[in-house]
Amino acid sequence: DTGSAAAVPIDDVDIAYVTPVTIGTPPQTLQLDFDTGSSDLWVFSSHTPASQVRGQEIYSPNKSSTAKLLEGHTWSITYGDGSASRGNVYVDNFTVGGLSVAQQAVQTAQQVSSSFTSETNIDGLLGLGFSTLNTVSPKSQLTFFDNAKASLDSPVFTVDLKAQAAGTYDFGFIDKAKYTGEITYVPVNTNPGYWTFTSSGYAVGSGSFSSQSITGIADTGTSLVYLPTAIVTAYYRQVSGATNSRNYGGYVFPCSSALPTFTFGVGDARFTIPSSYISYSPIAPGSSTCFGGLQSSSGLGINIWGDVALKAAFVVFNGANPPTIGWAKK
Ligand SMILES: CC[C@H](C)[C@H](NC(=O)C[C@H](O)[C@H](CC1CCCCC1)NC(=O)CCNC(=O)[C@H](Cc1ccccc1)NC(=O)N1CCC(N)CC1)C(=O)NCc1cnc(C)nc1N
Fold first, then answer.
1. Is residue 81 annotated as a catalytic residue, yes or no?
2. Model pTM?
3. Residue 117: its H or E element
4. Residue whose CA is closest, atom 53 of ligand 1?
5. What's the whole-number mean pLDDT along residues 303-321?
6. What is the per-residue pLDDT across 118-165, written as a single tens digit (0 to 9) for each?
7. How many CB atoms sit inside 10 A of residue 170's CB?
8. For 48-104, what is each residue's pLDDT tens digit?
9. What are the counts of helices (DSSP H) followed by strands (DSSP E) for the chain?
10. What pLDDT does residue 89 have?
11. Whose CA is nearest to atom 38 of ligand 1?
């Protein structure tokens, strides 16, 4: 089997991407944020208080003839940005881009934090991290990818995110039309459950490449790139008027400032993030001060290659044993 579905940016700065999925019988369609940085599949549902729903599509298990409550199972998750949700669990038919899993654990929200309520374009999350991170108790559940893996032509999924355009999540195959040159594969550390890999270094603009190991996670659910402070200060030193603003929570600069590109290494391969991706967004609509798409990871305890970096490459998440991650130009 294989599957292929669109990854559509939810706003004009690519803060996140959503992908259509269908749940139950007859099929109910929701738009989910596919997140390699977590491993819960949860949805806004008929169990979510109306006061917490603001236009999101909901999954109603009582309207699905194939839904079954997972008795006594609950879940509760908190994300890096402090957002959170919790609820109960059903199993039901679940399809992504033509690829179906018969008994997928679908976590129905009974409570979501205000940031989820206000994010009207996201009807839930589909975790693509390792199932060890799943929060369902007393028995943790498998991700869609782990459930589908045995039936896939190849135990992989690929991520092709684009700037202000629809990209794709492919399952079970590697589409040669989506990348150029070779795919460079590097090892993945599955502890504690992210897709953790080590980059071989970086360069700022046309500057020399600094070879150093940068261990971080490939995270489709994180908007920006978060790297060690030394690297980030080296970058913004090249940006006139850039300051690290406590007020705005990171590096800001005049939107008119020229920004260098940022290149990162994977093995011998080099990937360049265009300046336009790093001029992330005005700090407020119409402001002439812009927020950077590259920020410091100090305080996070982890380096994160988020959408700003993933958009610059075609990435293969190889779920074989042992898992690896592959990066290619496109
Ligand atoms: C089983 C938990 C699971 C593994 C969890 N995983 C994650 O947090 C990583 C995961 O990829 C989550 C997935 C997000 C969650 C919010 C909704 C969209 C998806 N990523 C993050 O939390 C990274 C930081 N957040 C982000 O990058 C969000 C993503 C977002 C997108 C659209 C709308 C709203 C939010 N972006 C923003 O808030 N932006 C607005 C501000 C702008 N300057 C940048 C973009 C974790 O590590 N939790 C531990 C944890 C708990 N508590 C805290 C405080 N930190 C933690 N790390």
1. no
2. 0.98
3. helix 114-118
4. 80
5. 98
6. 999 999 999 999 999 999 999 999 999 999 999 999 999 999 999 999
7. 21
8. 999 999 999 999 999 999 999 999 999 999 999 999 999 999 999 999 999 999 999
9. 5, 24
10. 98
11. 81
> Taking a C-beta distance cutoff of 8 angstroms, is the pair 99, 172 a contact?
yes
Give, for ligand 1, the residue of 10, 81, 220 to mutate: max count of ligand atoms closer than 8 Å to Cβ: 81
Catalytic annotation present for 219: yes
77 CB near ligand 1 (under 6 Å): yes
Verify whether ligand 1 is closer than 6 Å to residue 135 (CB atom). yes
The response to whether residue 153 sits with its C-beta less than 6 Å from ligand 1 reads: no
Residues near 276 by beta carbon (within 8 Å), at least 6 away in sequence: 163
* Burial (CB count within 10 angstroms: exposed 0-12, middle 13-18, buried 19+), residue 193: middle
Cβ-Cβ contacts under 8 Å for 29 (sequence gap 6 or more): 20, 21, 22, 57
Q: How many CB atoms lie within 10 A of CB 150?
A: 8
Q: Report CA dihedral (258, 277, 217, 248) to the nearest 10 degrees.
A: 70
- How many angstroms separate the alpha carbon of residue 19 from the centre of ligand 1? 17
Whether 38 is in the pocket of ligand 1, judged by its Cβ within 6 Å, is yes
Mean pLDDT of the chain: 98
The count of other CB atoms within 10 Å of the CB of residue 236 is 24
Is-contact 25 93, C-beta < 8 A?
yes
Scored b (16 or more CB within 10 A) or e, 269-283 reads bbbebebebbbbbeb
Spatial contact of 235 and 204, defined as CB atoms under 8 Å apart:
yes
